[in-house]
Amino acid sequence: MGAKKAKTTQKGEVSVYALNPRLKKAFEATLEPPKGKKTYEISPTKEQKIEILRYMKLTRSIEDRIEQKLYRQGKIVGGVYVGRGQEAISVCTAMHMKKGDVASPTHRDMGIFLVRGVPPRRVIAQYMGRRNGLARGRDGNLHMGYMNIGLISPISHLGFNAPVISGVTLAMKQKGLKNVGFCMNGEGATSRGDWHEGINFCSIHKLPAIFIINNNQFSYSTPTSLSYNAEKLSDRAVGYGIPGETIDGNDVYQMFDSVGRAVKRARDGKGPTIIECITFRMTGHSAHDDAGYVPGKHFEDWKKKDPIERWVKTLKAEKLITDAILKKMDSEINEEIIAAADWGEAQALPEPEECLEDVYYNQESKWFALKEEIKEETDARANNLSRSD
Predict the structure, then answer these.
(1) How far is 187 from 119, CA to CA, in rounded Å?
(2) By CB neighbour count within 10 A (0-12 exposed, 13-18 middle, 19+ buried), where does 214 fall?
(3) Bigger pLDDT: 15 or 194?
């Protein structure tokens, strides 16, 4: 395929958006919030607004510790993939999860784990390959899940999340449960056949599934202009006969409202919804990727839309937080992450022979004690959240 010729400005400078004009349109359309006070059908309570801020900050802090420090110190086993600049998507989604709900997250959805109650120290132990991590050091660091709180371990071939959630939500419907399944994907996964098959199945059977597309503009190094030709990925919902909408994924109010309405629809037995969240990947594909294929101006532009900074500005305008509250919050988060990193590093690595244990279900497994220990920790953290399970 021949390369597209970049357009030039009157000064002869190459436009950084020439090869991906859709990205410029997305940026300009979501740079400023709607004029005037907008009313949303579903909005977070005052307590939830503070919690959303804290969890977005906690998510960024733990990923910064993992990517910028532990990985570069050679203490992380495997690669590192983070969701910097996309925290509102995973955090706001998880705020709507209740007991019995299930999510199939991606490698950029750390916020879901933290909101659901997974302690940061268990996450860091997982990334360091320790036996007290969620996978007991038996799988790659990002392949962590915990079904006690409805979190399926991320699947590397992300499009396959869709048929997995199809099966999960089919079981929910057959059992008469009022639970919901959340399928998290990037825009790249929407070009896969298994993604389409999963949504089509959910549509036919009106299953309680929500398909959240984290459109961060790049599938590794492939821009959206070379991934699909639709104006909006949510337009594909029409072909399945289900609702779909495209929102600003960096806007907490839009995220909370959109997911909340989709959840209500699913619990009411009205079937699945597609939500495309426009955002930007403020880093390379992974820690070893310098993102040299992304013009620097993209990062400069989208930094203005940082979800955490925007939410801080909003909460200050609503007089819900002060600089003193922010300082205290940042200090507490920093202390927790430092303690988590110290604890994780102090844990033992698994013994080689342990890889042969529990390949099949074993009701006498010695690891049930660890599962109960983690369950107590996650329950305690989740119970402090302002939502009803």
Answers:
(1) 29
(2) buried
(3) 194
Where is pLDDT greater, at 333 or 287?
333
C-alpha–C-alpha distance, residues 358 and 122, integer Å: 20
DSSP 198: H
- Which one, of 172, 216, 205, lies nearest residue 83 by Cα? 216
Domains of the chain: 79-118+138-287+301-324 (3.40.50.970)
The tens digit of pLDDT for each residue in 202-237 reads 999 999 999 999 998 888 888 888 888 888 999 999
Query: Is 197 a residue whose pLDDT tops 60?
Result: yes
Q: What's the N-to-C CA distance of the chain in angstroms? A: 52
Average confidence (pLDDT) over 12-32: 53
Higher pLDDT, 124 or 300: 124
Segments of 249-316 assigned E as strands: 273-278
46-64 and 120-127 are packed helices; what angle lies between their axes, rounded to 10 degrees? 20
Residue 90 has pLDDT above 50, yes or no: yes
Q: Give 358: exposed, middle or buried? Use CB within 10 Å, 0-12, 13-18, 19+.
A: middle
The answer for residues whose C-beta is within 8 angstroms of residue 126's C-beta and 6 or more apart is 133, 134, 135, 141, 144
* DSSP secondary structure, 33-90, as one string: PPSSPPP-SS---HHHHHHHHHHHHHHHHHHHIIIIIITTTT-SSS-----TT-HHHH
Q: Which of 62, 20, 39, 66 is nearest to 280 (CA)?
A: 20
Mean pLDDT, the chain, rounded, equals 88
Angle at 279 between CA 274 and CA 285, to 5 degrees: 105
Cα 178 from Cα 190, distance rounded (Å): 27
Stretch (H or E) spanning 387: none
Task: Kindly give, in sequence order, each residue whose CB lies less than 8 Å from that of residue 309, ignoring residues fewer than 6 positions away.
Answer: none
State how far the alpha carbon of 175 is from the alpha carbons of 146, 148, 170, 179, 204, in Å: 21, 18, 9, 10, 18
State the sign of the Cα–Cα–Cα–Cα dihedral 277, 116, 342, 140. Answer: negative
- The tokens for 220 are 């590794």
Identify the residue with better confidence: 333 or 303: 333
Give the pLDDT mean for 4-16.
38
Question: pTM value?
Answer: 0.89
Length of the chain: 389
